[in-house]
Amino acid sequence: MAAPAIDYLSGLNDAQREAVVQLNGPVLMLAGAGTGKTKALTCRIAHLLATKSARPDEILAVTFTNKAAREMKTRIGSLTNGVSEGMRWLGTFHAICVKQLRRHAELVGLKSSFTILDTDDQLRLLKQLVRAADIDEKRWPPRMLAGIIDGWKNKAWMPSQVPVDEASAYDGMGVELYTAYQQRLKDLNACDFGDLLLHMVTIFQTHADVLENYQRWYKYILVDEYQDTNVAQYLWLRLLAQGHKNICCVGDDDQSIYGWRGAEVGNILRFEKDFPGAHVVRLEQNYRSTGHILGAAAGVIDANRNRLGKTLFTAGEDGEQVRLIGHWDGEEEARWIGEEIESLQRGTRGLDPIPLNSMAILVRASHQMRAFEDRFLTIGLPYRVIGGPRFYERLEVRDAMAYFRLAVSQDDDLAFERIVNTPKRGLGDKAVQTIQMTARSNGVNLVEGARMCVEGGLIKGKGGNALRELVQGLDRWNQKLRGPLVRVNENERLVVIDDDAGSVAAEYEYGPPEITHIELAEMILDESGYTGHWQNMKTPEAPGRLENLKELVNALENFENLQGFLEHVSLIMDNAKEDEGDMVTIMTLHGAKGLEFPAVFLPGWEDGIFPSQRSMDESGLKGLEEERRLAYVGITRAERHCTISFVSNRLIFGRWQSQMPSRFIDELPEEHVEVLTPPGLYGGNFGAAGMAAQANPASDGMASDLHERVASADVYNSPGWRRLQQRSQQRPMSQSKESRSMTIDMTATSS
Ligand code: ATP
Ligand code: MG
């Protein structure tokens, strides 16, 4: 006898149940964060299976990430006693399209064994084409072309479909190179990520029989996070659903945060037009967050003009207010959050202990992670970084570190191999082999080998010149690191120091370095051409790489010299832990979509970081409104505790910069926010670090340092902090409302 079905309907509210049992025809669930959209979608699938309306492989279910797909499958499995086995078409758009395309590859000129290029391969291919077309790569970096082509693919434009007003793209060569690129891919029996969808859309549009087959096969279609679909995905879905129209989409226009990657929130707003007679279900009860957290999130998103507007309520308690705190700088912010996490873990403020797995730090830009990683490693707090490598494992950070290592020691052959042709110096494999052979046969390190190759004329021409420059640079940086040789004994004759023999003459020694190790690091990155290499890239991810480089330089601030820093990093790399056990999660706001955590920290709420500088520079509100939706996504990830923080000073490229609290902070309704006094100030709410500093200012180098700074400097005298202080005194409510609408006006005019 089959195991009894689990009563999945009883855990739902009326509106959710309606969306679950209304199996036929188009259904749209348009509702705010945490209202149980994903839960309802999951139950709907369980219902389809339990009622035998469809077999597992007749259901097409699209999620935003592979992780979400796995979780959904597990949940359906437990709701149906394992009937979900065989749900072959549950996955991301890409994962599903790969499966389809393998079956029909020949229709677009590919074999079913086609390979999928990663972004590096894609770029290499494009570079070859750009070179063959004799285009100035400096002015028109191939990465830029990659970005343009991706954008077109997201819009489902084959080369022949790119509209005329885009024809000027990439110096007027965009479309031509796009055509050539598609041809190259075909010759190689390959496709890129964008192609997976584009090819399937093309096949559906040109082969009615194939489309009809799929339309019949997928009896039911379900899509989560529909607000973030791009045009190609939208077309693909619409084509598939056109037969039976059994399509159920769920989403939230307020959580549309991938506009920069081609997502069109209009897709969700148009649903009722695309599918006339659609059953629209609105959910208003939020089950995730406490009242204060919801109130704070609502206040922020309210400031957006372009939205449908929805109300959310919770039947649960108000809970703790959203906590807001300003810090002196980013290191202090990381330190404070580390302490907070540890006290939450132990149980604080009369709360039950919260495991680390239930806490997350959500950052706007991945370079913000560095300060937290450093801090957590120092205090031994386990953490995991989701959605990307840890800071010190990132490509650009490792490149830069290789330069630093060489400045410290020219014996570091691995570092030399890494950077000899990064940025491009015209040194191909052959040149590198020559250097290696020369070094080996002379028993010297690669830098020395390179020097011999240049001097002996083994490597000539452009590459030779560039190599000479590199070697000279390495000598210069090494010299700057050690300081100039100064004469100790004035009266003595000049003795030349013979380093190789290990005998340093007594008369001379290295004086103090003329520049700090931070200045040196900047100099190395500049003079080596590495910073310029990323500045010249006009691709979407280049600014992020530059920010990481700046953050790397900032990290040096905490160390006395470059050597100490390099040691610290090598220890970090050693400590890299497995991704299991009880750990705090560090991830970007974008990556956190759909997730929930009992305690959430949202650091770096400063204008220029969040909202990002780019969104503020843009004309119009589009970018800013997308940032605001991201703020809404961030706050609504929190179940019970939400802490927002900002700093007065940030180190940008080794220089202090005064920061203004984010304009989004002004939009947080006061009644839902508790402004905390930073540690060491005004005797208010102290974090543990502040407490320690108060009790014994000399007990901890860092804390007493903070104490000094607080005492001596006008730490919290930044205009932004003053504004906040004023605000927290601006009660009662009627007054604060006024001040709120004023700040919103200000925001509108200044953006
Ligand atoms: P988001 O917009 O952030 O993706 P969502 O609308 O998909 O949110 P879910 O993740 O499905 O929301 O649900 C949020 C939380 O509320 C989950 O922990 C879920 O288990 C719970 N939940 C959903 N519906 C109910 C309900 N009817 N009764 C109790 N808890 C519920
Ligand atoms: Mg969801």
Structure overview:
The structure is a single chain. The longest helix has 22 residues, at 461-482. The protein has 31 helices and 18 strands. By secondary structure, the protein is an alpha/beta fold. The protein is globular, with a radius of gyration of 29 Å. The chain folds into four domains: 14-98 and 198-281, P-loop containing nucleotide triphosphate hydrolases (Rossmann fold); 121-188, Arc Repressor Mutant, subunit A (Orthogonal Bundle); 291-390 and 576-676 and 718-750, P-loop containing nucleotide triphosphate hydrolases (Rossmann fold), CATH 3.40.50.300; 395-535, PCRA, domain 4, CATH 1.10.486. Strands 9, 10, 11, 14, 15, 16, 17 and 18 form an eight-stranded mixed beta sheet that branches. The chain has a six-stranded parallel beta sheet with strand order 3-2-6-7-1-8, with helices on both faces. Strands 4-5 form a two-stranded parallel ribbon. Helices cover 48% and strands 11% of the residues. 45% of the residues are buried. The site of magnesium ion has 3 residues, from helix 2. One of its GO terms (biological process) is recombinational repair. It catalyses: Couples ATP hydrolysis with the unwinding of duplex DNA by translocating in the 3'-5' direction; ATP + H2O = ADP + phosphate + H(+). GO terms for molecular function: 3'-5' DNA helicase activity; ATP binding; ATP hydrolysis activity; DNA binding. It comes from Octadecabacter ascidiaceicola. Residues 10-290 form the UvrD-like helicase ATP-binding domain.
